[in-house]
């Protein structure tokens, strides 16, 4: 009976852990990144505020840091024409389909102590993750049609 309980406990602990693919992704994402480019799926001028913070122009060139062992990070807006400074967040990588490599990426802004701000989070798709490049996408509906925002990062310490 004791052996059965120990076996069930061991299986439940293993099943609750992140998959090998997610663990590998966390190792790759660790470090410093630069948000080099943001693009939209549709041509035109759009007034988009990303992550309820600042505009596309302000985010381009921003510096990002990911610390996967505690799922925290920060980004710095560097554009002098914008509200500059560091912003803290927590993040989660959730595997959707190991065979296709699709992931959900959840970012929640926090204060400097790690407390969530207004319990607001942003779900993005982690479309690409290599040792030197990362791409996030977010698909929204604009006038009833899909509208995709693509954010391309390059690893600063690569």
Question: Can you describe this structure?
Answer:
The protein is α+β, with helices and mostly antiparallel strands. The protein has one domain: Lipocalin (Beta Barrel), CATH 2.40.128.280. It is built from three helices and ten strands. An eight-stranded antiparallel beta barrel has the order 1-4-5-6-7-8-9-10. The longest helix is centred in the N-terminal third of the chain and has 15 residues, at 2-16. It is globular, with a radius of gyration of 18 Å. The relative contact order is 0.18. The model is unreliable at 1-20 (pLDDT under 50).
Search tags:
158 residues; alpha+beta; Lipocalin; 8-stranded antiparallel beta barrel; two-stranded antiparallel ribbon; 18% helix; disordered N terminus
Distance between the termini: 52 Å
Q: Based on helices, strands and strand pairing, what is the structural class?
A: alpha+beta
> Radius of gyration, rounded?
18 Å
Provide the CATH top-level class. Answer: Mainly Beta
Mean pLDDT: 81
Which stretches are low in confidence, meaning pLDDT under 50 for 5 or more residues running? 1-20
So what's the overall shape? globular
Strand order of the largest sheet: 1-4-5-6-7-8-9-10
- Report the helical percentage: 10-25%
CATH topology: Lipocalin
Strand count: 10
Strand content: over 45%
Structure annotation, total helices: 3
Tell me briefly what this model is.
With 158 residues, this protein is of the alpha+beta class.
Secondary structure elements and pairings:
Elements: H1 2-16, H2 20-29, E1 31-40, E2 49-50, E3 54-55, H3 56-59, E4 63-67, E5 72-77, E6 85-97, E7 102-110, E8 122-129, E9 133-142, E10 145-155
Antiparallel strand pairs: 1-4, 1-10, 2-3, 4-5, 5-6, 6-7, 7-8, 8-9, 9-10
Keywords: Signal
Protein name: Lipocalin
Signal peptide: 1-17
